[in-house]
Structure formats: structure tokens, C-alpha cells
Amino acid sequence: MRSVLLRYSKYGTPSSTIEVVRQSVASKLSARQVLLQFLAAPINPSDYNQIEGKYPIKPELPAVAGNEGSATVLEVGGEVKGLSPGDTVVPATAGFGTWTSHCVVEEGAVKRIPAGLSVPASAMLAVNPCTAYRMIEDFQKPCRGGWIIQNGANSGVGRAVIQLSKAQGIRTVNIIRDKEGAQEKKRELLELGGDVVFTSSEREEMVKFCKENTPRLGLNMVGGRETIQLLKCLGERSSLVTYGAMSNSPMSVPFGLQVFKDITLHSYWMTRWTKRNARSNLEDEMFGKLADFYKSGELTPTPHRENSFYDFTDALDNAFSRKQLAFKSSSKVENDNWDDWEPMTSVKVDKKKEEPEEEEEAPPVDFFADMVPQFKQPAQIRIRSTSTDVPPQTVSSSRLAVDTNFDVPAAGLGELDDSEPGGWGEDEALDDMEIIALKNEALKKKRAIEREKRRKEKERSSKLS
To answer: Strands 239-242, 264-267: parallel, antiparallel or unpaired by DSSP?
Structure first.
């Protein structure tokens, strides 16, 4: 069997460092291993940071990209007790390497989540909704009718905060960037359940409103000087929780606003919480409640469109500019008959991509989703054993995702020979991706030049001001 995965061997811009490779993989599960088929894997800002080498978690290189996603269990080893074929699971920790189709990992590397969720809901469950849920629950939770104020309200976390708050009778003051389309975005967030939405330039109106409707909990995704606006709007003895720095600027906290108003400053990182509470009753309760919110319709996935591996360059380029792509596997494969599988086709998109000046808000999520055929008898899927020079991956490994496997033939690759010996072979670049890379190389260079030009112009403007 061959493994196809999105991998990076050095740190740098994702669209220029990610490559698609295929490798021979294991043919037999050990006692506590499981075979997974990934259903979908979002592109998050943390994925970008990790590929660029700017994230606290740095997998051993080369590494498979992606920290979040959901998978179906296809087969389990003889001593696996907590998982069964058909279970839906998510990575137990960050750094898993989810931009793949199948993988073999130890049982403890994944966690089962409640059944009955849509693929987008399950794939996006473990980061943004959990972050929103924990910040509401763990830091001065308002009573029914109380207020929360947040910036970055159009982000995945921000949207989850709006919906989870509404479901519990908590009201929200929401701040978005003042840019083209802001009024339309205001209407969208109000329809989602937000009680009031301001743009970042409506400072006086915001402060006046909050004097009459005082928030006791502030959620700070943007950082920088936007922190001051949250502090001005919070009441005395309130809490401000910072969980992002999308402005890429140091957080500003004036002495008077913090001390004289007795505001407590907190930080929050979902990865840290997960490490401390993995497999606890508290984590199980959180996943259960969020699943119930999804099933009742009170919580909905972040707006998204779906993508396949075979257009990953455009997916990465579009992930933070709201123009997205979608691919679907066009047929099902029965009894491992890969001749029945047809190449995926693309959705037409506007090629005029504009890069945002600032990343204050995380945009809707792109997916590498549903890019593989479905198996009618997953328990009968067979994989080969790894060779002695590449041991099976374990929970403690920083390269879990490198032990991945899925046999998705792209057009022109030929049939997969199931009689090949097991073990890891030399990496083979996909012919189709080489063609795509050649077509996109000129476009990538052009974009890089344009980005550098905008950066220099911004620097000049800053110096003049």
C-alpha cells in the first residue's frame, strides 16, 4: 500500500514548502494500533505558524502538516479496547499531522467523540468550539442576561462564543474590523445570535453602550492596541482573557484601566488545557455538551468550503482571504477496486485573490475533505508492516502523522500493486502535483513580489505617521 500525504521538510511559507509525496506503509497492525481514515482537516492559523516554525510545537522534520481533523476508525489491533471500527475520533494532542487520508497510530493518539455529528462539525470540534466553551465556563462566566465582549467576533472562536452564549442566555457585544463589507458582516453576526455588533472604529458608541450594559468578561483575540478598547468597555472587577495576537503587535494594557478598575488578566491556550485534562471527565463532559449543541442546531460549523490534496496550493493561498475551493470524491470503491475511483474535479473560483492587510480575525475554514473513497468493509482493510529502520509511531512521538497510509491513486499514477513488499520506500513526488507546481510557480512568485511590495509600503507609511 502507498501513503500519500502533505509534508514539509523545512520551515517556510506553507504554499512554497508543502509537498505531496507517497510512501510505502505498514501491512499489519500491532496489538494496540488503529487504522484511521481521515474525513476532513481544517486549515487553521496555528497550522501556518507551525509550518513557518513560529509555533511552540515543532514536530521533527520532515513532518506531515495539520493539527485538527476527524477520522473514522477502520481497523483495530488485537489488544485495542477503547475503540472499534466505525468510531469517529480526533487527535488527542496537537502536532498530529492531519493533512493526510489514512494513518496508523497507537490507540492513545486519538480520542473518540460522540457519534452523529456532520463531517465539518466533527472536524472542527476540538479547537474553536472547545476554546469558546472553556473561556466562557472557566473565566468569570456571566449569569443569564449578563454580557460578554469580544473582538475577532467573525473568527471561528468568535462565532462559537456568540452561539454558545445565546444558547445559555448570555448576551454578547461583538467587535469586527472596519473594512469593506463590515455592514453585511454585522447583519450576519446578528442573525447568528449576536446581540450587538460594532466595528473597531465605533469606539465612542461602544463605550457608551457598555456603560449601560456592562460586560464582566472580555475575550481578546486581536491583541495590540485593540486590547485598550476591551479594557475601557469592561466593568470593575472583570476578567480579560487573551487567546490570540492576530494584530502581531504587543498587547497594550494601561496601568489605570487595569489597576483602578481591578481587571484581572488571563491567558488561554487550548493545547495547554488539553494536555492537562486529556481523557478526563471534564473533557468528556465538554465534548458531550458541544455535540448536543451541534445536534440541536444551536451551534453550527464555521462557514467553509471543501478542498482536496490535489489543489492544496490554492487552498493554502485562499485559506485566509475568504475565497475557497471544493473537491469531492466522485465515486465509491468496493472491495479495494481502485479502477472504480474517478479523479476529482474542481469548483471554479475567482483567481483574483487579495491578501488581507491584517490578520485580526481568523476566517472561515478550508478543508482537505472527503478526498478518498469509502470502504464498505473497513475491518478487512490490510496494511503492511513498517521496516526495521522506521519503527511504528507511538503516542509520545512528535511524528505521529509520518506513519500514515492511504492508497488514493491520482490520475496517471497507475494501479497500486498490492503484492509489493512492506516497508518504507523512497519518496516519490506525484506526477500530477509536479504539473500543478509548474503551473503555479509563476503565480506564486508574482504573489510573493506583491506581498513584499505591500509590506514595504506599509513600513514606509508607519515611519511617516
So the answer is: parallel
CATH label, 128-272, candidates 3.10.310.10, 3.40.50.300, 3.40.50.2000, 3.40.50.720: 3.40.50.720
pLDDT at 321: 56
Q: Write the single-letter amino acid at 114.
A: P
Residue 268 to residue 459: CA distance in whole angstroms: 31
| Residue-range domain boundaries for the chain | 2-124+301-430, 128-272
What are the C-alpha distances in Å from 363 to residues 213, 324, 436? Answer: 28, 11, 26
Q: Which CATH architecture has domain 2-124+301-430?
A: Alpha-Beta Complex (3.90)
Which H or E run includes 456?
helix 431-464
DSSP-H helix ranges across 175-268: 182-192, 203-212, 226-233, 255-259
What is the spatial distance between Cα 18 and Cα 311, in angstroms, rounded to a whole number? 12
Alpha-helical runs (H) found in 55-155:
119-123, 128-138
Active site residues: 55
Is the pTM for the entire model greater than 0.85? Answer: no
pLDDT at 231 over 90: yes
